[in-house]
Amino acid sequence: MGIPLARQERDWYRIGLRIYRSTMSHWVIRCSQEWLEPVFERMHQVVMKVCTVLMGDETRIQCNKEPGKKASSECWRNAKN
Questions:
Q1: Which residue from 38, 45, 52, 57 lies 20 to 30 Å from 70 (Cα-Cα)?
Q2: Contact, 1 vs 19, CB < 8 A?
Q3: Would the pTM count as exceeding 0.70?
Q4: b/e burial code for range 29-40 (CB count within 10 A of at least 16 → b)
Q5: What string of DSSP letters covers 5-59?
Q6: Eight-state DSSP code of residue 77
């Protein structure tokens, strides 16, 4: 449903089903372990065959004393900066 489990619990209760959020939480965890974890592991194996180093960072920082930029503007930094 794309809504928090607490809200889903109330919605289900309103239509006559008593499904606790702890039960739904266990379902989510189990599904992710059984279905998503193997996909992640396979993707990881493939990437590690191709790349020895993999890094990603999209941290925004304030541009203080950078040529051509206002001090209040934001910048993207990458590994070479």
A1: 57
A2: no
A3: no
A4: eeeeeeeeeeee
A5: HHHHHHHHHHTT----HHHHHHHHHHHIIIIIHHHHHHHHHHHHHH-S-------
A6: -
The token pair that represents 17 in the structure block: 């089903």
Give, for all 81 residues of the chain, the pLDDT tens digit.
589 999 999 999 999 999 999 999 999 999 999 999 999 999 999 988 988 777 777 776 666 666 777 766 776 655 444
| 76 membership: H or E segment, kind and range | strand 74-76
**How far is Cα 22 from Cα 26, in angstroms, rounded to an integer?**
6
